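Re: [help] complex structure
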Amino acid sequence: MTEQSRHREDIEAGDLFADVPPPPPPDYLRDGRGIRSWLLTTDHKRIALMFYAVIVAMLALGGIFALLLRTELLTPDQTIMTAPVYNRMFTLHGVTMVFLFMIPSIPATFGNFVLPIMLGAKDLAFPRLNLASFYVYLLGTGVTLAAMVWGGVDTGWTFYPPYSTSTESSVFPVVVGIFIVGVSSMMTAINFIVTTHTLRAKGMNWFRLPLFVWAMYATSVIILLATPVIGLSLGLVGADRLYHFGIFDARFGGDPVLFQHLFWFYSHPAVYIMILPAMGVISELVSTFSRKPPSSYDAIAMSSLGIAFVGFFGWGHHMFVAGMSELDAGIFGGLSMFVAIFSAIKVFTWTATLYRGRVAFNTPMLYFFWFLFLFTFGGMTGVAVATQSLDVHWHDTYFVVAHFHFIMVGGTITAFLGAAHYWFPKMFGRLYSERMGLLTSVSVFFGFLFTFVPQFLLGNAGMPRRYYSYPARFQWLNVVSTGGAYLLAGALLLTLINLLCALKWGRRAGPNPWGSHGYEWMTRAIPIKHNFETPPVITRGPYDYHLPEEMPHVDPQAR
Amino acid sequence: MNELLRRLLFLPPQASTLARDIDGLHYFVIISTMLGALLVTVVGGWFLIRYRRAYVDAHPDEYDVQARPPLWMKIAAVGSLFLLFVIWWSIGIRQYLELRVAPEGALEIYVTAKQWMWKFAYPGAARTISVLYVPAGRPVKLILTSRDVIHSFYVPDFRIKQDAIPGRYTTEWFEARSPGVYEVLCTEYCGTGHSMMRGRVVALDPGDFDRWLGGADLETPLAELPPQQYDPPWVVGQTARAPEVDPVVIGERVAETQGCVRCHSIDGTPHIGPTWAGLWGSVVPLASGDTVIADGAYLTESIMDPMAKLHRGFPPLMPSYLGKIRPAEVAAILAFIQSLRDVEAQPAPPPATRDGGAP
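Output below.
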């Protein structure tokens, strides 16, 4: 029943006060007060904010571990910790960053927040499942961290047997914790897929979906197909430890390399789970701030699906020196390179989108610019390590460490920060300080370069990863890298402070401070609990910048 | 040019025959990566400046919401990238084949990794730990396995790396271009001592190597190396006796002198202890009710601590040989037992223990 018809009925019923419009519903931040209204909410936006808080805490935690590691590596021998502590520390860093921060980061926060709004839906298809996914994530995080802090695990985040089945440290509870976190990701993925299929607003066909939604959709498909495999493989490691099945233990006729196949069958697509949402964010940023549609919508949308599909067939490049046959190495190398073509299509499309645009230069756009460089360089070094003969030298050295940090930190965290600034007004109704934003963004970039460029050179020189002590000739590059890590950490801290200050003192933002044509900006400044007062009808695409600037037409209350 | 790029990229010296070719591809790949990233960044940065909002608002005809690159440009960009990757791939896979397939007649050396050291077994009976002696200018094929967890044998100067995997044999090969000392690093995380699991490859002049392998004066070839890099191959001095080169022969002799064969038959007849015939690789029932595969680890343990995993049906009589037998002798005995794996064991069941024992 629409507002007008109810109004007419009220008048016909003789209610004289009915022509006074009802007060607009409060925004989602004020719709319900008290801790209970947050902890038991089914509002996707509130759940997103709860995820946001925990995930930022995980990033901080993983960052502290990284700083401790880098500090230890200042000198060739012991600096601040012993070898067993160091080995536990890099496992903590890897597990926290990969499973607790990176994989849920953009989907669970920004995906959760904007995906239903972008689709013109009131909420996700299964709001209670969404809330459950948060608590399952908390449970998994709690179990994982508790096990790692009290028991300690020293296997590295890859859990390679037979080391992981024979080490004294408490692998089993950590594996259980990661399994639980995986279940949470799958809950979110199912929710996103079902929502995208069933809750699109009237008039929104598949090619009017914002590109961020395409990216989330592709990510969800990978999560759904790949996560069970990692769950089962880690489960088998746990079972091997407890019951000595010997699945991965050569003494009982098992095969340690089998685990590597199972592990990377998940974990290589997981790399795309980490980067695809970032690509979705970048697509939105570029279009909004250059006031142009992406130079090819289809190319970006379809390359997301291409990455999701072909990404499943490249895992073997992690095993070029593990006794893989030459034929396999040829096939896996070729397929891995093929994935990069899809990423390159995206990079070309983003760059071409700027051409003859009206480009606004601000913090999210600066992050886009860093992303462009870091992702291209990191991605091409990925193709470099898929080149078989070169990988023999680079495998398991700091070159690989630098490569995947370029993708994960340079790509995903840069996009995460871009998204944090871009959607900040929609989430909290305020604007951050642009000057501080630009300053912190520049420092993040230089901190990053100083941290990871030396690591490429260390890898070339032959320094293996996971080295507690190293030959003295590697020292000065390690010192530069550690200095960069401190700069990066300081810049990230300042970014957080800048955004926290904006929460309280930031200028109030209108419904659409960036002048975007994206659907999520057509709500009120801060969306109400169910996003829209009336179900929106979509009559144009999300990037139709050739149409004149319009009022947020799906939200009559925002006039 | 090669030397300049090598130093710019911090690559180690090119000490193997293949290193230089691989570095050639390395330069090509890294330079095209840098150029590609730079190109995208410069073009993107130029657009950011050229079409900045303040400028475009003053020149409205610069703004074209529908502007997109022509089709040929898209095809050219993606096509040239594809071509680039195909070139990388085709050079990379050819070099990979060269790296993986050892030439005929390569000197074979067995490498056993364990936490946290490398052990090398040469043709003949020579054994070394942590220091691998090879002849320069001759291809050397390493056959690797591991006794515990996965390790990886990496020589940066040779650009070679291969995982050593328990239960599998993997190979890698190299040919050192000139005599010298090269660092060995473990590159598969293997626990607390991972970063200290280092070793050295000492490439000797081929003539010196043959003399060394034959047990000749060890000081001669190594004295030419810089003194701080010289490490005497002490393990070799214990075992490398010129006439006895076959570890099986040595093992048989050790088994006689140590008295093993007084209880263990080698022709399969039942005796006081389990026969060695067909023992290697078989499933051994234990007194505890478990079973174990009779591999090197189990047999070594049983020599050192016979009661730890007692063979079911045999009396607990065997003394421990801990401290009475040298590692090289254990290895020789294992080689001897291994040589008996195809000898048929007698079908007669072993005599039951007098006290009934565990079933």
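Chain B touches chain A through 87 residues (CB under 8 Å).
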